[in-house]
């Protein structure tokens, strides 16, 4: 997982990975701290999926640019287009089902 610090870095990450997950968090979010390791572990099953983290408390302009107003927020991009958005009350099972569905279409 990499840490993205600017809108340009976020855009470049999304465009350069066929399947990209961007995890938006903020320093004071305890749920975010608990959820991120679970997402990292889940994504080990999907080696073609790239994961990046954006700390909104250090990258304020990203919140507006990507319409992120609650934390955590997870965005799934495929070929540069947003395919899924999960925010605040995130079901890992539902998110993994979404990943699995698109992963099979792209990589199996």
TrEMBL record:
Tell me which domain of life the UniProt entry assigns to the organism this sequence originates from: Bacteria
> Where in this chain does the record put each Thioredoxin domain?
1-104
InterPro entries, alphabetically? Thioredoxin-like_sf, Thioredoxin_domain
Q: Which residues form a coiled coil?
A: none
Q: Please provide the Gene Ontology terms (biological process) for this protein.
A: cell redox homeostasis
Cross-referenced PANTHER family: THIOREDOXIN, MITOCHONDRIAL (PTHR43601)
Name-wise, this protein is Thioredoxin
- Naturally occurring in which organism (per UniProt): Caloramator mitchellensis
State which gene encodes it. trxA_3
């Amino acid at each position: 997982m990499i840490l993205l610090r600017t809108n340009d870095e976020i855009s470049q990450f999304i465009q350069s990975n066929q399947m990209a997950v961007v995890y938006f968090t903020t320093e004071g979010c305890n749920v975010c701290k608990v959820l991120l390791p679970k997402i990292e572990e889940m994504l080990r099953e999907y080696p073609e999926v790239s994961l990046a983290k954006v700390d909104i408390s250090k990258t304020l302009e990203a919140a507006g640019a990507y319409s992120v107003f609650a934390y955590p927020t997870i965005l799934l991009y495929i070929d540069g287009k947003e395919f899924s958005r999960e925010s605040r009350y995130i079901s890992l099972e539902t998110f993994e089902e979404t990943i699995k569905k698109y992963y099979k279409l792209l990589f199996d």
